[in-house]
Design brief:
mainly beta; Jelly Rolls; Immunoglobulin-like; 4 domains; ten-stranded antiparallel beta sheet; seven-stranded antiparallel beta sheet; 7 helices; 6% helix; signal; WxL domain-containing protein
Length: 812
């Protein structure tokens, strides 16, 4: 009788198992999920890049034979133009969505950014279980690849543990491995504590077979169990030293795992936990670099619940000769409006980690694998959907954005890393947003800029009614009209695409917005970051303007005086300098500082069309500074500006950036004078007295006035002359006549020839122009004379004098 009753129980159990319906593939989203979708991040359209298919079950006991993942729009409806992946919707659902092609090249740097929604159930596993995983895979099933539901999160294997007649048959390690996604790496965002030691935990079955029912298979639900703290066995199996048995975390954890290798599933003793009877052992999952995190039950600093969690994942390929790539994630790095999450405490603070990845686990020869997301829901009727919205897609394109503020008055640029972030009231600011196309296979298209302006700045349109301009890498400019500004938010769609493909305007675009800083209070104003998003049809990038401080207006001024307003510059003088001497004071005579405290000053010097900056550290109540302008300029630029005999104006003003003060402008008048000068003035003709044939006068005197003078400046000189005559009728040389020279009456005559003869010299370098009139000192018996050596035939004789004045060594 007893045996008959047991046999009857067996028949009932088997019959109950066979009539259960399978999980619905496209379960509807709950009202709570739909409300979250209404406020979901935009996300990019993904149907052109991702797809999935019904999974291939491993064998007859593999119950995970559906795929609930679907692409939906913000209403929750299936849509080819949808921008949200609903991976699991409804209880016990599980799903995967993959890149249609093997588009992830592990030999290149890759970046993906996405928003994840797990639900918000205040720590309730009923609502939030089980989690989402980002997965790289090279499974032969391609877009049909899918692991187990429940604790398998759609990527790990099925812990198919069977209830027998008098005992439990543990799952086989190889079976769990074979039912997982093969050749894969998973970064899991696990929202449930699947731990044998959790008093609320129990075996589960996706077909809703109640535990324990004889001859049914169950997931023992213990993949997160921490079987002790020793990891020596794991390192012996080839895992890194960051590998752990299971994972902690009350409200979730993030970790890396290798779903398709048998050793990722480790058997542990659970005999003392009666909730799992008749099973004595169960499998836990090896987690690499697990980090506890509030994936659910998170609240921001204003105590608002956080539904969508942003994550940026960066892949760095293995170095040459190595198989170790790295995966870095930044979780909760952005708020829902794309502003930077700067929370420093509580559940919502950003977390990051860099994890080494063994690329041999992907088993790829060409480096190409699929990427995608998997997820699973728990068995509760109130479980939340697992949703993903993408900002960027790996290997499609990756672009980022940077923001900075330039104070054109104080002459400084502020970015996120700046230590000095102060501007002054009334300063002209340039709000700069730089878009950078970094890599990709397509151009970044239809980029809609939405820029929230920082508080306490105003925009003033130019004469054309424009408040901003875009400068593309190809040099073209695009105006942004004042009409595109509403409630301190500027919205404009770029007319051009960015990228490295045909039709783009290059890989960068800089948006420059002209603004003015406003502070009419008596206290400094700290201005918070302001978010800017750039949403294209295939990429969403964001940035934040840096925090900065608008100083309260000062009640004193910065005064500059020049000590030498008129300066003579010697043109191209050796070791030339142009020293601009000045004195700086405060109007109320307070000090710039002493030996322990100083004030940083920037001098702004304008010469010609260029401006130069010089920094100085001021101290004392009156600070004197000498600026050598020539040392700031290229030598050619300097002398091209300060040309010989020119008059130029140079202006200088001082900037106290720390106090937001700008001095008055002083002017220096620069006159460029010759450095050296040497010139010669000489008459074009010289005539000697006529003589009658047979006249034997030895020295014939000059019969016309003759001018011969040398003018010099800082140049000692020597004057020489040569001659080639005299000739008869300019043809025949007359050897009976010779041109001679003597300077003084008691000197001997020197006969001139084609060899230079020194006429006069000056060994002093005069600091002012000095002219020596040499011929004025000649008498009838000195200077140039014509000597008759013999009787010359009658006729007219001519010759040529060649004069040369040259710089000589100065008299030391």
């Amino acid at each position: 009788m007893k045996l008959s009753q047991i046999f009857k129980g067996l028949i009932i159990a088997t019959f109950f198992f066979t009539i259960l319906p399978s999980t619905n593939v496209n379960a509807a989203l709950t009202n709570d999920d739909l409300a979250v979708l209404n406020n979901a991040p935009n996300g990019i359209g993904i149907s052109n890049y991702m797809s999935n298919a019904k999974p291939n079950v491993y064998d007859s006991k593999d119950i995970y034979d559906t795929n609930s993942a679907q692409i939906v729009d913000h209403t929750g409806s299936n849509s080819a133009n949808g921008n949200v992946i609903a991976l699991a919707s409804g209880k016990n659902t599980y799903g995967s969505m993959w890149s249609t092609d093997k588009s992830f090249d592990i030999n290149k740097e890759q970046t993906i950014s996405a928003w994840l929604y797990f639900g918000s159930g205040d720590g309730s596993s009923d609502v939030n279980s089980e989690g989402i995983a980002f997965v790289l895979q090279n499974d032969s099933n391609g877009i049909s690849a899918l692991g187990a539901g429940l604790e398998g999160i759609g990527v790990y294997g099925y812990d198919a543990s069977r209830v027998n007649f008098i005992a439990g048959t543990d799952a086989d390690q190889s079976y769990i491995k074979n039912t997982a996604i093969q050749n894969s790496v998973a970064l899991e965002f696990d929202t449930d504590k699947n731990n044998f030691y959790n008093s609320n935990n129990k075996p589960l079955n996706n077909n809703n077979v109640k535990f324990p029912t004889l001859y049914s298979y169950y997931s023992l639900n213990g993949f997160d169990t921490q079987f002790g703290t020793s990891t020596s066995n794991l390192t012996a199996l080839g895992f890194p030293d960051t590998a752990r048995y299971g994972s902690g975390g009350t409200y979730g954890h993030i970790a890396l795992a290798y779903p398709g290798i048998a050793n990722s599933y480790q058997l542990g003793d659970i005999s003392e936990y009666t909730a799992f009877s008749p099973f004595k052992k169960g499998y836990g999952l090896v987690h690499i670099s697990p980090q506890a995190n509030y994936l659910i039950d998170a609240y921001d600093e204003q105590n608002n619940p956080v539904y969508w969690h942003h994550v940026t994942i960066k892949w760095t390929p293995a170095a040459e000769g190595s198989n170790d790539a790295t995966l870095t994630y930044y979780f909760n790095d952005k708020n829902l409006d794309y502003s930077d999450n700067t929370t420093t405490k509580g559940d919502y603070k950003p977390t990051t980690d860099t994890i080494k990845v063994d690329t041999t686990k992907l088993n790829t020869t060409d480096g190409k694998v699929r990427w995608g997301f998997t997820a699973a829901n728990g068995p509760s009727d109130s479980v939340a959907s697992k949703l993903v919205a993408l900002d960027s897609i790996p290997d499609l394109l990756y672009a980022d954005a940077d923001a900075s503020i330039t104070d054109t008055i104080l002459n400084k640029t502020i970015n996120a890393d700046s230590t000095d972030k102060t501007v002054a009231n009334g300063d002209k600011l340039s709000l700069n947003y730089q878009l950078n196309y970094l890599q990709g296979n397509v151009n970044w298209e239809n980029i809609a800029a939405k820029i929230k302006l920082p508080d306490h700045v105003t925009l003033t349109p130019d004469s054309d009614g424009n408040i901003a301009y875009i400068t593309y890498a190809d040099g073209t400019k695009e105006a942004i009209s004042q009409s595109e500004l509403t409630d301190q938010t500027l919205q404009h769609t770029l007319a051009k695409t960015l990228g490295n493909k045909t039709g783009s305007a290059g890989t960068t675009a800089k948006i420059t917005i002209s603004a003015t800083a406003n502070n009419d209070t008596t206290s400094d104003i700290d201005v918070d970051k302001a978010v800017a998003t750039f949403t294209g049809s295939n990429q969403i990038s964001s940035t934040n303007s840096p925090e900065f401080t608008i100083l309260a207006p000062k009640q004193y001024t910065l005064d500059l005086s020049n000590d030498n307003s008129d300066i003579d510059l010697l043109y191209k003088a050796d070791n030339a300098t142009l020293n601009l001497e000045n004195t700086l004071t405060y109007s109320d005579n307070h000090s710039f500082g002493d030996n322990d405290s100083t004030t940083n000053i920037i001098y702004q010097i304008t010469a010609g069309s260029k401006t130069y900056n010089v920094g100085a550290t001021a101290s004392g109540s009156s600070f004197k500074q000498t600026i050598d302008l020539k040392s700031l300029m290229n030598d050619d630029d300097f002398w091209n500006l300060f040309t010989l005999n020119s008059a130029q104006k140079v202006t200088v003003k001082a900037i106290d950036q720390a106090n937001g003060l700008i001095s008055n402008t002083v002017t220096y008048n620069i006159t460029t004078k010759p450095n050296k000068m040497l010139s010669l003035e000489v008459s074009k003709s010289l005539q000697f007295q006529d003589v009658n044939y047979g006249d034997t006068t030895k020295y014939l005197t000059r019969k016309n006035d003759f001018d011969l003078s040398v003018t010099s400046l800082r140049s000692p000189w020597q004057l020489t002359v040569t001659t080639n005559g005299p000739y008869s009728n300019s043809k025949s040389l007359n050897n009976n006549l010779a041109l001679v020279y003597r300077q003084y009456n008691d000197d001997n005559f020197t006969t001139l020839s084609n060899e230079p003869t020194v006429i006069d010299q000056e060994s002093t370098a005069h600091e002012t122009n000095v002219t020596e009139n040499i011929a004025d000192e000649w008498t009838k018996s000195t200077g140039l004379l014509l000597e008759q050596l013999n009787i010359s035939p009658a006729g007219q004789y001519t010759g040529m004098l060649t004069w040369n004045v040259a710089e000589s060594l100065p008299n030391e």
